[in-house]
């Protein structure tokens, strides 16, 4: 077994080659499909519809609404998850007290809460924010706590010997040490909320990519539906790359 690490440029070439191969297979399969219903799913039909959607201002309205919900959901998840992660990472009693509760809650599908969220918060954006924040908060809590536990104890002893205040320890030692782990949690959270977003937007809202898919389905425009799926995948990929860029940026500091 060859475990030699590929050069970075070669790794990206392999990735691009795999992507091209995927679309080539899709195109070849489309050539084998006879005229009829399934022609809607060929690569040629999908790309033509995708070009039309890219030129339609309504598409960007749906994208903007979905991104707004994603960012607000992630904001609340970070606002709640980082302090809790810092607390349980530094306090063994808090960690022991909360660990089983958190493990239990994080295994519940966020979409299971949808009927309760709608009943309490009403129809609209509020239940979507709740579902996204609930889905995103767990990887942020757990990765933040892991980052705190992995802080070099020698740094903490040095800070103690210099009579550093808890705020100074947090600012100058703990926070720089855990930032990378927080970004790991954020990357995982984005992957989760991007999955939860689409079905959440199929309930009680009139905009967003989830609603856009539902609308295309109701109009029986399956080529448009598949094009929207490609848009969702592309935006999710861009968000993931953005977090990876931040990870590399702060790792280099």
UniProtKB/TrEMBL annotation:
<feature type="transmembrane region" description="Helical">
    <location>
        <begin position="70"/>
        <end position="89"/>
    </location>
</feature>
<feature type="transmembrane region" description="Helical">
    <location>
        <begin position="9"/>
        <end position="29"/>
    </location>
</feature>
<dbReference type="GO" id="GO:0010438">
    <property type="term" value="P:cellular response to sulfur starvation"/>
</dbReference>
<protein>
    <submittedName>
        <fullName>ABC transporter permease</fullName>
    </submittedName>
</protein>
<keyword id="KW-0472">Membrane</keyword>
<feature type="transmembrane region" description="Helical">
    <location>
        <begin position="101"/>
        <end position="122"/>
    </location>
</feature>
<feature type="domain" description="ABC transmembrane type-1">
    <location>
        <begin position="63"/>
        <end position="247"/>
    </location>
</feature>
<keyword id="KW-0813">Transport</keyword>
<comment type="similarity">
    <text>Belongs to the binding-protein-dependent transport system permease family.</text>
</comment>
<dbReference type="InterPro" id="IPR000515">
    <property type="entry name" value="MetI-like"/>
</dbReference>
<keyword id="KW-1003">Cell membrane</keyword>
<dbReference type="GO" id="GO:0005886">
    <property type="term" value="C:plasma membrane"/>
</dbReference>
<keyword id="KW-1133">Transmembrane helix</keyword>
<keyword id="KW-0812">Transmembrane</keyword>
<dbReference type="InterPro" id="IPR035906">
    <property type="entry name" value="MetI-like_sf"/>
</dbReference>
<dbReference type="Pfam" id="PF00528">
    <property type="entry name" value="BPD_transp_1"/>
</dbReference>
<feature type="transmembrane region" description="Helical">
    <location>
        <begin position="128"/>
        <end position="148"/>
    </location>
</feature>
<feature type="transmembrane region" description="Helical">
    <location>
        <begin position="225"/>
        <end position="246"/>
    </location>
</feature>
<dbReference type="GO" id="GO:0042918">
    <property type="term" value="P:alkanesulfonate transmembrane transport"/>
</dbReference>
